[in-house]
Amino acid sequence: MKFFHLIWGNLLRRKLRTALTLLSILVAFVLFGVLCAVKEALAGGIAVVGANRLIVRHKVSLIQLLPETYKARMEKIPGVAAVTHQTWFGGIYQDPKNFFMQNPVIPDEFLAMFPEIVLPPEQLKAWKETRTGAIVGRKTAERFHWKIGDKIPIKSPIWMQKTWEFDIVGIFDGSTKGWDTTPLYFRYDYFDEVRKGQNFGTGLVGWYTIQIQDPAQAAVVAQRIDDEFANSTAETRTEPQGAFVQAFANQTGNIVLIVSGILGAVFFTILLVTGSTMSQAVRERIGEIGVLKAIGFTNGQVLALVLAESCLLTVIGGGLGLSFAYLATAAGDPTHGMLPRYFLPAGDLWLGLAISVILGLLTGFFPALQAMRLQVAEALRRM
Amino acid sequence: MSDQSSKNDTLVRVDGVEKMFRRGSEDIHVLANLSLQVPAGEFLALMGPSGSGKSTLLNLIGGLDRPTKGTVQIAGERIDALSDHQLAAWRARHIGFVFQLYNLMPVLTAELNVELPLLLTSLSKAERRKHVATALAMVGLSHRANHYPRTLSGGEQQRVGIARGIVTDPTLLLCDEPTGDLDGKAGDEILNLLQALNREHGKTIIMVTHDPHASARASRTVHLTKGQLTTEALQ
Amino acid sequence: MFNWISQIASITKFGLLSIPQRRGAVAATVIGIAGVVLVFVGVLSIAAGFRRVMQSSAAPDSAIVLRSGADSEMVSGFGRNETRLIADVPGVARNAQGPLASAELFVIINLPKRSTGTDANVPLRGVESAATAVRDRFQIVQGRMFGWGKNEVVVGAGAAKEFAGLEVGGTVKVGSDDWPIVGLFTCGDGLAESEIWTDAKILQGAYHRGDSFQSMYVRLDSAGAFDRFKDALTTNPQLSVSVQRQADFYATQSERVTQLVTTLGLLITSLMAVGAVFGALNTMYSAVAARTREIATLRALGFGSGAIVLALMIESSALAMIGGTLGGLVAFVGFNNFHAATLNWQSFSQVTFAFAVTPLLLLLGVILATGIGLIGGLLPAIRAARLPIAAALREL
Predict the structure, then answer these.
(1) Would you say A105 and A97 are in contact if contact means Cβ atoms under 8 Å apart?
(2) What pTM was estimated for this model as a whole?
(3) What is the pLDDT confidence band of residue C396, given thresholds at 50, 70 and 90?
(4) Which of A250, A269, A313, A370 is most worth mutating to test chain C (most C CB atoms within 10 A of its CB)?
(5) Which of A21, A55, A94, A318 has the fewest Cβ atoms within 10 angstroms?
(6) Nearest-CA residue of chain B relative to A14?
């Protein structure tokens, strides 16, 4: 636009001051981006749940096991399209610090239930042919540098404290961003067979995932399932996958609140710093503003010029900061594989940009008002 | 070009104007019952000691301020009755200012400074460029178009100021002590320029000055003492 | 020497006196630094509070015995015979009732968190009668202890604050039954306060655990008795156990959460501190610019460059320290003892704790602030000292 030279020139008037203010804004937005990624890692996962999936667990707690026989009964319930189960294995690979989830599953059913898991067909074939076979998510595979063909020993303190050995036959990815690729899945039939041998917990599973025919019927079908098993030894609690994930995230704490609190403090500070810089800048230019008005710039135009200046500063700073944050988060998980997902959601990037514009308007507001109200003759005297 | 057919049309008509300022609890009367007429094409000098109100009168004529009493008519238009917003637009179209301290934007080059009043018009970029080039040529500074004010001498800066003042081809050029900050030679150059603008291009100029050498170049001088006019004969 | 100090003092005084003129910029920097310290202290007080809960649970003469290879109670298990063997080992303290050893087991039940309304895992622990002596700061503060052999529970003070529906006189759903809550207990701000307790025998029955337990909490004769106790157990061929001091056990339990919070906290604070340095630089540069003529005059009069640099840095640091103290104070008032709970991955259940704004954190906060002030003041100070005097005197 034609007023660009004037606005840009004013920003360059005191290069050092502009640079320092810009850097403060930049840092604030880097922080914004990083915190959004952290929030997504700890409390996200809602976006990747399927609207047509329910989780069925033991009513009293997730740790209690459910009978395998429930599967047949659930398949008969109207509205249920498919049923499969998983169980918490709780194994340790070398060191408890190297935590990742390992669950026994039924391969075909499991992959059908979770189409977001992408596994090459030849790897699936190998899995079905290898009793001790396991597929592992790419994140964990990269963390420990596993390849297909590796034998992985995992010790399970829960399941008979023996060391189980699995053959890596496949590495899977997620088709949607944010899908957790840290778990390892192995075959349920192998799991149950070993259990039978020691007569320990045979025929018991951790939780079921149900695929329903119509997402709108989620609450109804959930109630039907819980009714089916009410008053039995193992009562169930069924909820949509989203609610389950949300509740779990809430156990970590009110992450969203904490992150918002920190960001609030940061932006308030930036507001002060930038606002103070803009006020100073305007005060130094009272004479020039008078000249502009003498030439014929209206009060409104002068207001707009000041606001444009502050917005340009905040948007450039914000844009750069968000870019750095994006690059930083794309570089990888700082906890090296502990977090199930680590990325900066596109929605948050746009939010950040919008915030930078609002920041510009807020910081420029009072100085702009002051510039607008200046009486020409008075201002000229102060040139 | 401005709307005037003959040199005898009254361009500026100031009638019974009073201006009062309030300083703290005191009322200060700067102008009292002042009337003045300026025909189109005149080069008028306003002289007077400091505090006599000459800058105030200039501000009233230029629409930078409103009189407490009385009227100010420029080209038949009652500018004392215009709102702030209307006055801004009016100034953009009708007035060019030249200031004692040049008042250039230090962050803009010479040509961008001259372009400033044109940004308020609806001219295209190419047309603006043309007008700027013309104005700079008229003041003899085409070769300094890309320079920032801090690399220009005082005289050169004032010439840029004049170019800015005439680039929109205004009805009236108002100069507040244009040579006040310049030494003899540079000051002379400025006055030559103003005279040329008046004689060869027919520009109406009102100049406030306390320097008799400057006022000698004008076609008429009026004196202001304590807010009242006393007129001297035409030169 | 004195001359030099008095020079610095005068310059600093002029500087501080000119603050009212530039109060906008000064306020912005002070508040900016206060913000950094606030976040620093606030986030790290989460880690400190969490660690504190874990550590106050552990007296130096107490030990915990788990099955060999188990790193948490959840994955450990003992039979009745083993617990008897462990309780009889020499080194275990005794009172009139017998050895101070409590065989325990725990399950997880779901209750809604007050803060989010969603369900979370709460530990329900079955204990033996020695449990209250093993954890010596156990105290019933409301109601009474549960009756041994009865389906009754007592609730920890932390759990009562964090979860809905845990008042004395209310009930808790255990399996398919409702058990009455008969008392509220505190235990020296330790981990136990996040839990609900009942008789181990009753819990075993309700959850079909036979006569098995998951852990043994033991009080020793003295802190020095630990090594002997541990050797006796690990060399016994009938037992396959791991023995730790309770303090060590809790340290490893809290490690992951503490590490995560500390790493994130430091990351966030470093970024904020960098931003604050820029803000401080900004303020100090404009301070120097605004006082150019004044500083040049001082130098023309004979004040040394060194004194000017030091004075400006003192001023910058003083302002920063004020900001840091302010931030620490707000953190203390706002966060100290703020009640929260988070998931302990080892026990897979909620640990309730309170944010702990410790004196150490406050001190670190002030040091951080001062550091920001020093860095922010250094470069502008050097610029002020190197201004060409004549040019500066002319500047308006």
Answers:
(1) no
(2) 0.77
(3) very low
(4) A269
(5) A94
(6) B107
